[in-house]
Structures are given as structure tokens and as C-alpha cells.
Amino acid sequence: MKTKASETERVSRKPEEETSIIRHKADGVKRRLFRRKFTDTLNALSSKKTVKYATYLAAVIVFFALILLPPIIGIVIKWSTTQQVLEQPALMGRALNAVANSFVVALLVSALDVLAGIPMAWLITRGKSKWLSVLDTLADLPFVVPTAALGYSLLLFWNGPQGISGLFGGSLISTGWLLVMLLHFTFSYPVVVRVLVGALLDYKMEYEQASRTLGAAPFIAFRTVTSPILKPSLIAAFILSFARSLSETGATFIVAGAFENGPVFIQNMKNEFSGSAPATYEGATVFASVILIIISCTIFALIRILGPRLKLPFKGIWPVAERKLSYSKAAFSRNSVTLIVFVAIVLIPALFVALPAFQAVFTGTLSAAFSGSGVWSDYWQSLLLSYGLGAIVTLLGFIIGLPMAILIARKKLGKSLSALLDILVNIPLIVPSIALGVSLKFFWKESFPFMPELLLLIFAHLAITYPYIVKSMSAAFERISIDMEEAARTLGAKPFSVFRTIIFPLSKYSILSGAIMVFTRSVSETGATVAVATSLRTAPVVIVDWVKGTVPATSLEIGLGCGLLVLLSFLILFLLRLVTRGKGKY
Amino acid sequence: MPDVRVVNLTKKFGEITALENVNLHIRDKEYFALLGPSGCGKTTLLRLIAGLIEPDSGEIYIGDKRVDDVPPEDRDIGFVFQTFALFPHMTVWENVLYGPKVKNFDLKEAETIGNEVLELVKLHERLDAFPNELSGGMMQRIAVARALAAGAKILLLDEPLGQLDAKVRNEIRYEMRKMAKDLNLTAIHVTHDQSEAMSISDRIAVMKKGKIVQVGTPQELYMHPGSLFVAHFIGESNFLEGSVADRSDEDLEIELRGGIKVHAIGEGVGKGERAVLAIRPEIFTVERGVHKSENALIGKIEKITFEGTLVRYVIRLESQDSVVVVKPSLAETWIAVGTKVTLSFASEKAHVFAYPEAGLMAETSV
Asked: Could you tell me the pTM of the whole model?
């Protein structure tokens, strides 16, 4: 039937149509020919050693010139300003105290996150319920909520009268260290769970099964076999959580109250002194940044060196007691506690901002928002800036990060140099972003005083997100066996062809997920943004200003502002998930 | 006493039925092989017995105890994985002591057991080595030692020799049998290698597509295959198509292509039905020239392959069927290509099967 219909269609086609179709086809052929020529040129170029090495060299130079060296030089040239702090013992004490708080919070929160994340990841990967895929998605949700919105959401839930505090008449948890801890726990939780789920999925189940057949109850099997084998992933999860906690600025500033950690201190210095006593501001900032950077690099170095040697705390085995922890009752209560922690401490507080956002929708705040009046014109501009910036940074990061990722993944520079490069690339990840932003600004403002602020913003975000994109790409490339590449080469493919037809198709979904991470990170970032920009304000910065009352806004307006930001982020993530769903597994 | 019984066992993975209504009894102290092509369900059956996966329906008994609901750690089995699954973060000694420790044995006792089993596998001097420092053969023996140290009375071996080099494999397989016999263990050995199964097992269950097609001693399976599949999968067989011309009891007269009539034994195929005659390549007598005799097939040598111990002839019959014959390579003079020969065979050594509905190729494909 169908073929007949199409035949009659073909017969009834008018001659003009036919010519247009032919023209179309000719266009297509031309385009294809052009593309062919283009790839041929690239292929030819790619097999030239000089071109290949020039590309790699350019990637390394860009990394050093744009990402690694500017913040270091920036700090060095402003080093003398720290004299200001040394002369003011009170200020110095405050700075040291703040930095110490940063590390205490980060260490505690990361340890708690890993502890809470293990049973959750276990439940997601080993549970038998069909609802687990829903749980899996829910566990990802807080990751997409930009931290500034998350901070406000937690403030409402734990502290505001509409939240859980309402039940207790007054605020349950006042702003300060406890709320900061809760906040950091919440935003690191999805990252930790994601890493651990990935590790458990990759893990060879046979080890655990072997342990079971030898007589170990499930809990013993997990503790004595699975967790030591997964130790690198546990450490990786800890490090990610630790780094996030050290860097977070905007949301922490919202919930900190009088509590100060490193980033909040720097932010406060800016608010207190940047106008009245710029020298004090610079000195305090440089001082805090340097200490933050040094301690954080030391801690990461220590983890890297000691991590592999770290034996898990208990080597002994207590068969009788541990058996009791293994079976139905214990497993049930363990799962319940895990779920309660997730729902009550992570999920509901993170999404609580939906409540005022809904109220706003029904009270006319929404129409005010769409009319762009009052505070809203700033808001829309900032949204545009945030997403535009995110897109530019993701694209740029991909371009400059790609050759670097190949260099690292394929160890093109030899083993030790490639390993060194790998460590260097990771440095921006472990440096608190506000410190990174501050030092970047010093460098660029000193060397190019008339540099546009937008460019500075792009550089700052690029520096922060660079490790994420390079890491995700190099990890994806490493997973592709070099045999594939060699097979393609022996079949006659030029290097560029190999990349285009083998490497890229096999890794594009991992690259895409890396890009999503970069994008969300950039949209979320407040620390580096406030550090480098004074006139340009991204969406999270606007929200921080609203919440802190720098710009007067009603709670409904803040709620709606956060809600829209979250909604847009969800939409983007959802679209990307649609595109990538069920793919990328070979 | 640890015999193993499975009753009406069924296991599905989504849409795929991995095991369908399997019944099997493995006797105490028996060395038993589960043999079949990959995907036949043999590993699934082994994992069900171990408790690593749960059946959809059916019952599993170890000794007199029904164990369907017993977790693997309480079944008192030892499982040797194809990849060995030695814990990479523990030394040989820690690996071996793992079972006794988690089973809450007295530490002294555990160490005695550990020493004994390491003695048994002759790896006493590598106590402090980590698994990645050992050769495949050593890892295999440690994996067995580890299972034994945990006090297993039943050894479940999932392709335990699959990761080893051919030479090592042939040595170790006899060691495995000897060890199981010396220690009075019941062993269930999964393999797809029929020569491995034949050479070490007391009995073998041949599996195909989630079902057990025949259980028997190696000799029974080889000499009295119950189906075309077994005749094909165990050892080697020539298949000649024909139809049953006459039958009296087990003795059948088969008319092959080209009108040749021969005698063979078979069950379940009636007069006038299509049939397949299966003949092992080593049971033919080969004579130069054309001779008239019982069960004679006439053809021409088409190809000779020297295989070391054996020499293999491919003979094209007058009916255009081709037949493979093997002869000891040094005991007789070879017959040159192109020579006309007469093949004959004893009728009680050739088997007749009903022509399979799905066709000969489909039935014997693995």
C-alpha cells in the first residue's frame, strides 16, 4: 500500500518541483564535497608531525598562560600587601580562624558525605526494587540546583518560618556553622553518590561473590573485600566533596550569618574594606588566599601520597556481630536510615524553594517578573549572562582542553611528564575558587588594566572548570583501548580520521556529561565571579544580593528568582538527558 | 553427606530462559562435569547451586537440606571462579585464611588448615606474594586452596582451567581430580571443553539451550550418545542421511543416498522414516580397492592431514557424501590421495537417529 502511494506521488510531481529537488540534491552534493575536502585537508595535516606537535604545544602553552600561571603570579605580585594584615593582629586572627573553619567544615562534611553516600550507592546499585531508577534520578537533583538557590532553599527550610522551623515556633537552626555544614553536606551528597555508584557498577562482582562463597555474610564481604578494593573511589569521592566544600562561596555566604570560613571572609573583606581601605582589603584577601591555597595543596598532596597506603581502620573480623548487621532486619533499618537522611536532609531542603516559587506564581509576582519591572530587569540580564557565560566557557574549555586530554590519556609526553601534567591540570580544582578568582584578578588588572570585565569573567570560569572538562575527556579516552586506534591506523585512517570516526563516537557521551558538569559548575559559581567582577553580575550573585538585602527584594521575589533558575537548569539537564539517554554504552 | 539434587529448576533472565525444568542428582564424592556450548546454562546452574543467584522456581538440595533460601555463605560450598577472583589487596596467606576467619574458626585451627591446604597445592613458599605476582597456574591453585580452607565439602568449579595455557591446563586438570578424590569431595566442574570433561569426570551432564540432554559416564556418552547433538558434541562423528528400510528390535537397516544399505543400531525411529547415521571416524576399517562386504562404503581418498598422533583422511563416497576417517599415524602405511577404498564398520558401533525436525545443521550447531 505504502509503496503504491509513494509511486503515485512521484508521478504527480510537477516539473518545477523536480528541478528544485535536483538543485537541492546538487547543493547537498556540493556541501558533501566541501566537507570531504575539509576533512581531507585536516587528515593530511594531522599526519604531519609538525602540525600535531604544534597543536599539543599550543594546548600546553594555553594551559600555563591562561589557567595555571596567572593566579600564581597574581598572588606573588601582591605579596607585599600582606604586610597590612601582619600589622593588624585582630584581622590576622580573624583570617586564620576563617581558614581553619574552612578546613574543619570541609573535612567533617566530606567524611559524613562518604559515610552517608556508601549505603545510598549500595542501595541504588544492589537493591531490587523497580523504584531505584527513580531514586537514582532524585539523588542527582540537588546537583543541578545552583548552589546559591540551594543556600536560600536551605535557609528557608531550616531557618525560615515557612520551613520545618515553623513547627517549632521560631527558627530551628539559626544561621552559622551548623547550617553551613548542612548546606555543604547537601550539595556534595549527589557528587559523592554519583562517584560511588559509578565505582560499584564498574566493580567486579566476583570478588564479593567469592567472599560470600567462602562464608562471609554480606556486611563482612562489603567491609573486608569490596570497600578495600573500591578505596581509590572512596578517596576520589572524598576529594571531590572536600574541594567543593572549600570552594563554595555564594550559598555559604547566605547561610553563614556571623560564621566565617575562608571564602566568606574574603567576601566580607570586599564588602567592608574594598571601598574604604583598599590596601587592607587586598592584604587580607591575599593573606587568606595564600594560606587557603597552601594548606589545601598540602592536604591534597598528603591524600595522594598516603591514600594508597591507608589501611581501612579495622582489619579484624567479628563474624558473629557482623552477621547480625547483614540480614533482613539490619538491612531494612540501614536502608530506612539512608532514605530518611536523603529525603530529610538532602532532597526536601534542596527543593524547598519550590514552595515560595509556587506562591509567587499565584500572587502576581510572576507577571511582574515577566514584565521585567523593578528588580527583574537585572535578574533577566543576569540569567542571560550566566547561561551565555556557561556556554562560552564550555565551548572554549572543550577546544583548549581536547589536545590536553589526549596528551594525558595517551601519555604522549612519556610517563612521568604526563603524570605531572595530570597533577597540574587538577590544581585549579583544589584551590578555593574565590582565592583563584582574586589572584587571577590581581594578575590581569596589573598587567592589562583596561581588560574588559567580561573577558576576566570568562578567564576565571575557564580556570575553574578546566580540570573538569580535561578530566572527563581524558578518562573517556583512557577507557578506549589503544588497540582500536591502532586497528584504525592499520586500516589506513589518518590520525584526525581516527579521532573523528573512532575515538569521538566512542567517547562523545562521556564528553557530553563532562560538558554538562562544566556548564552547571559555571552557572553555579559565585566565589570567582564576585572576586573578579564588580559591575557584571551573574544570576547566583544577584540571588545572593537579594537574600542578603544588598538589593531589596521580597521573599516571594527571591523564591521565584531561585525557582526560575532551578527550573531552567532542570530543563537543560532534562534535554541533555533526552539526547543522551541509553546511549554511550558500548 | 553432600550430594546435590536439583528438582525442576527454572531460571529466566528477563525474556531469556537460561534454565528450563532441570533435574539432576550429583552423588556424594562424585567428580561431576557440566558440559555444553557457551550459553547453554551450565554456569547459571552452578551459580544457582552456589546461591549466587536465585531460581525462579524449583528446589535445590545439598545433602538432605533444602538450600533455596540459604545465602551462599551458609551453604558450605567452595566456588572457584574462572577469573579466580583472588582478593587483590590480600596476600596469598590472607586469601587462604579468609574463609576460616569469616567463619569464626579458632585462629590456631585456621592456620593449621591454611598450612595444610597450601601444602596440598604445593605453594607453601609464596605465602607473602600478592595475587598479581603469581602466574595463572599458581592463582588457580590458590583459588582452590582458598575454597578448601573454608571447609568446603562441595567444590563448584566454573571453567576453572579456562584462563590457563593449554599445557598447564592439561597438567592441572588431573591434579584437580586427584585432589578432589583424595579429600573425598564432591566436585561440580563446568566446562565447554569436552576432552577436559571426558578425561577427569566420573559422570557428565551434557547441556544444551537450558536443558540437560544426557547424563552418563564418559564411556556411556561416547559409545551410546542419546542424541545427534551428543554424538556431535562429544568426540567426533560422521553424519550420513538416509531412511529406515527395515528394522527388527534395535537393529536397523538404513538406505543411504545412492541406494547403499547398511546396518546399525538405534531407537525411536520407525520403518520408512528419515534418519541420520552417526559413525565415529576411528571405527572404520579401510581397504584399498573395491570389496564386497557387509556395511561397506566405497569412495576415493580426497585429502590427507597429518596431525601427529593421528592421520586424518577425507573420503568422498560415490554418493558424494564425505566421510572422515582417522588412523594412528605411525602404525600403518598411509594411503595416497586419489586411491579408491572400501570403508566398513561394525553395525553395533554405529547409531541411527531420527532426522531432526529443525534440520541436521541446526541440531548439531553449538
From this structure: 0.82
